[in-house]
Structure formats: C-alpha cells, structure tokens
Amino acid sequence: MSTTPIPVQIPSRPLLSQDEVLAKCAYFMRTQLWPRETAIDPQGWLSNFHVSELSHAVHLLNAVMYFASPLVKEMFASSFQSLSRSIAGSGDSLVTLQGSWRTLIARSLITYVTGEVESPTDSGHIFARLVRDYLGIPETQIRAPKEVLQSLLDNGPRPVIFVDDFVGSGLQFATTWNRQYSLNCGIMQSFKNLAAIQTAQFFYASVMATNDGFSLIRKACPEVVLSTAHELHPRYSLLHPECFLWPDSLRPTAVDFLRTASLRAGIPDSDGNHVDDWQGFHKLGLAIAFEHGTPDATVAILRWKSNGWHPLIVGQ
Q1: Which residues, listed in sequence order, are joined to residue 202 by a DSSP beta bridge?
Q2: Domains of the chain: which residue ranges?
Q3: CA angle, 83 as apex, 99 and 121 as ends, to 5°?
Q4: Rounded to whole angstroms, how far apart are CA atoms 122 and 295?
Q5: In this predicted structure, what is the pLDDT of residue 8?
Q6: Which of 97, 132, 133, 175 lies 20 to 30 A from 164 at CA?
C-alpha cells in the first residue's frame, strides 16, 4: 500500500555534458532499458534547440524516466500484490494472510479507470488485459465499470479493483468514481453512491502516482484503498522551484527555458487545461514515459511532433 513520501535532502546535481548524457542514453538502448532509435531519438530531439538552450535541453534529456514494458509489468504486479497488506490483521499468520488474499482475488471484479470522456484508448484497458495475461486472473472477472456496477446491484457486494498505469492529478479516477452510469431498468448509479449503501471493498492499483493525485483521491474517495509501485514527490515536477532534476545553476531559468522552447514549437499555452500544454496537463510538469504511452502530465516538449519539431518519444 502506498505511503506519503518523506522529503529527503537531495544532493545537488552536477552539470553534465551533451556527450555524457547521450552516452547514457546509448547505454540504456544497448541494454534495452530504452527501445532502439526507431522509438526514441535523443540526438534528433536535441537538434530542436538553439545553442543557448542546449544546457537546459541536455539536462532535461538526462531527467527523462522511460519505463520499458518488462519494468512496467513488474511494477504493476508489485502494486497489485501490495493490496494484500490492506487485508492483513495484526495477528494473522502467513498461512492466514495467503488464504485471505486468494479469497479476495477469487471474488474480485477487476475494472479500469476511464477519462473525463470515455475512450477505447484509455490506458486502463491495457492494464485490464495485463491482469488477465500477466497475473492470470480469469477474463470473466474483468469487466467495464458499468458492468461492474450492474453486477454489484444484481448480485450484492464483491471486492472491486481498479487498475491503471499512472495517477496524475487524480481527477480521472474521481471522474470514474462519480460518473453516473445508466443501468438496467433506467437506474442511474455511480461507484460513489453505491459505496454509501453497500459494504463492497474498493481498491485502486497503479504503476505510478503523484503525491498530489493520491491526496485528491484520498480526500474525494475515502472508501478506496490505494496502492502504487512509486509515489512521486512534488519535486519531481520540472516546474517546482526546488525540482531536484535540474542542477542548481539551471533551476532558476528552467521554467523560462521550457516555456520559450515550447511556444516556439507551437505547443499550446492553456494554463494546464490542454492535454498538450507546455507545462503538462494540470501543470504537473513531469518527465515520465512508458513504452505503451506517455502520460499527458509529461511536458509536451518531449513528445511534440508538429511544426517540424523532432519528438524524443518517436514511436507513440
């Protein structure tokens, strides 16, 4: 189960040369931590910048956290299995805990988080399939949110586990939790309303989450038990005044660099309200990418493809 991250003193990052960072990227590609250049193109991306911007661009490249599919699978499995801690009694033996966990999984309905506007491309669909293919949970237990609500109404309480890759602002989950679905006989129902009248257990397992996103969900959806492999401290944001991804000498001008280069590329300036906003959606300002897709919370300058701009993340 996730815990609130404890701020720690991070040593200053040294200034790095372009050759050092490109050598690191090349090593990641050789060892398959990153994909080949057909999917990620560090040198092409650096060619977007003016000479005066290169120091910031090189250190932004160095800050990128890219997670290939094997790593994502393992992190997701860890997050999912960590839900077992929430059902452990203080005096439970290992055998008792294992039995309780098997019972929980056998009875659970698995579903996914959908966007503010539901779409077949929502990342939750990928992780619903991962539950089946990687964790071995029968497909009969994996259902759309509407179908889960209908089952709970028809058959009574069962544990419900939501799955997803990334929790950014937390609003996407809150939207799914509060959305009114039209069920059989014209009944309108939401998970929020059902949680108030049923004793069903609700869980949410994700690969990665921001501290702000989990804080919002804890406040708006207190019935939900949260688990993630990594909870990101606010200082992971490239926009944070104490962001530890920038060297001390570049941090004071980092936001100006991001804004200037992004606007030159034609990236929207919507105060965080556009999925391609230069600050990242909801101004989260992250530098994270997964092999299956890059979160909207990641700054658009890393994935932008228009106006002759060379994206770093090519294969998405």
Answers
A1: 160, 224
A2: 18-69+234-302, 108-232
A3: 125
A4: 11
A5: 46
A6: 97
Query: Would you state the pLDDT for residue 122?
Result: 64
What residue has token string 């014209």? Answer: 186
* Tokens standing for residue 283: 């101004």
d(CA 288, CA 303) in angstroms, rounded, equals 11
Chain centroid to CA 214: 11
Edge-to-edge strands of the sheet including 224-232?
109-112, 160-167, 202-210, 224-232
- CATH architecture of the domain formed by 108-232: 3-Layer(aba) Sandwich (3.40)
Taking 90 as the threshold, does the pLDDT of residue 120 lie above it?
no
**Nearest in space to 62 (alpha carbons), one of 10, 31, 22, 9:** 22
The residues, any chain, with a CB within 8 Å of residue 250's CB and separated by 6 or more, are 15, 55, 56, 59, 257
H helical segments located in the chain: 18-30, 42-46, 54-63, 69-81, 94-107, 124-133, 145-155, 171-178, 191-197, 211-220, 251-264
Q: For residue 121, what pLDDT is reported? A: 58
**Average pLDDT rounded to a whole number, residues 128-157:** 94
- What would the pLDDT profile of 266-288 be if each residue is shown by its tens digit? 999 999 899 999 999 999 999 99
Neighbour tally for 27: CB within 10 Å: 11
Long-range contact pairs involving 127-132 (C-beta distance under 8 Å, separation at least 24): 127/76, 127/163, 127/164, 127/165, 127/207, 128/163, 130/73, 130/76, 130/163, 131/80, 131/163
Query: Measured between alpha carbons, how far is 113 from 108 in angstroms, rounded to an integer?
Result: 16
Share of the chain above pLDDT 90, in %: 71
CA nearest 76: which of 209, 212, 208, 214? 208
